[in-house]
Amino acid sequence: MGFLADAAWAWRSDDRCPRLVASTDPKEEGAHRVMPDPMIAYCGPAPVPDDIWARWNFDPLLLALLGLLALAIGRGRSSNARAGWAAIALMAVIFVSPLCALSSALFSARVLHHVLLFGVVAPLLALAFPVWRAGSPPLAVLVATSAVILWLWHAPGLYAWGLASIPAYLLMQVSLLGSAWLMWRAILSPATPSGTALVALVATIGQMGLLAALIVFARGPLYAVHLASTAPWGLDPLADQQLAGLLMWVPAILPYLGVGLWLAWSSLRRSEPAL
Question: Whole-structure pTM over 0.85, yes or no?
């Protein structure tokens, strides 16, 4: 537990620790209002249940990027248009819908956001844009890089820093998605032997499970930025953190497990002797 816990206490001891503060205005007593936290830069301050459905994100840059991706798919630049459209739809759910705002309030929503990004959007983009050139990094390097990036962004200090400014937030999202896309592209490449791809999937499931276990079994809340924003949603910070760990532990492995079973089945079918 030392990696996460030590980082958490180091971050909390800093006077710059970003935090949400419950309102003490008597007019709002019992309304579960939370004061806006300027440290949560991109998705905005933590919402409350009363205003969550008004918290859509229509960032022009984001919409332009999704539009360019849609244009590329519409012009036939994608190898699998269905996968490409599905990736765009899911990115809209992640970044445009109120899930973006909810991830400012709940660490569990943020983990769901990340799980969808690197576990579902990334393989869809790998199917849509599967270009694999000779000389690309070995799969083992891509798996290790993706794992290191995932662990770093879930260290409490770096996690809070990633929410503190828009450039840091964009770096978090681009590095998580980019490293996962490169890894999935190699796993799904016809040039990658099934056995090698299966080892990569098992290794990824293992390291995600270890990170999830550290989050679930931590003795106290690790992520200071969410300490005062979970109450309006009926959760205390530790319960929210445990839910986040469970999301990373169980649902997050399903895409990897599904692809692994598909690869194993395909390999067995190819090895069957012709009758």
Answer: no
